[in-house]
Amino acid sequence: MNNPSIFDKIQQFLSNNPTAFGALIALMGLLLFLGSVFDWNWIFGDVSRTTYSLTKLDGWVNLFGRKTARIIFGTVSFFVFLVGVLVIWLSWK
Question: For the chain, what is the domain count?
């Protein structure tokens, strides 16, 4: 018995439904954008003060400050939202 795992089922569903894939990307971008606008602590709250790596959000907050990191993160998440909308739009054509 070769039962596919849940990840295989999700991958198959998203490859068969590009609109759902675009909606997932758009929802993630929108959620992160709203987290940036409303300064949600689960995104920006638990910052390690010893990390200055630009590969982590902690490093951005430590190097540039929380407000600037929120602006940069909000801009990037808005572009992620737009990519999701673009995928939805292209899947309808």
Answer: 1
Provide the whole-model pTM. Answer: 0.82
The count of residues in the chain is 93
Is 41 among the domain residues? yes
Structure confidence by residue, pLDDT tens digits, 32-73 = 999 999 988 888 877 778 878 888 888 888 889 989 999 999
Please indicate, yes or no, if residue 8 is contained in any of the structural domains: no
DSSP secondary structure letters along 16-71:
H-HHHHHHHHHHHHHHHHHHHHTT-HHHHTS--TT---TTSHHHHHHHH-HHHHHH
Whether 5 maps to a domain, the answer reads no
Q: Is residue 88 part of a domain?
A: yes
- Residue identified by tokens 């998440």 is 77
Nearest to 25 by CA among 90, 91, 79, 73: 79
Tell me the residue range of the domain where 73 lies: 21-92
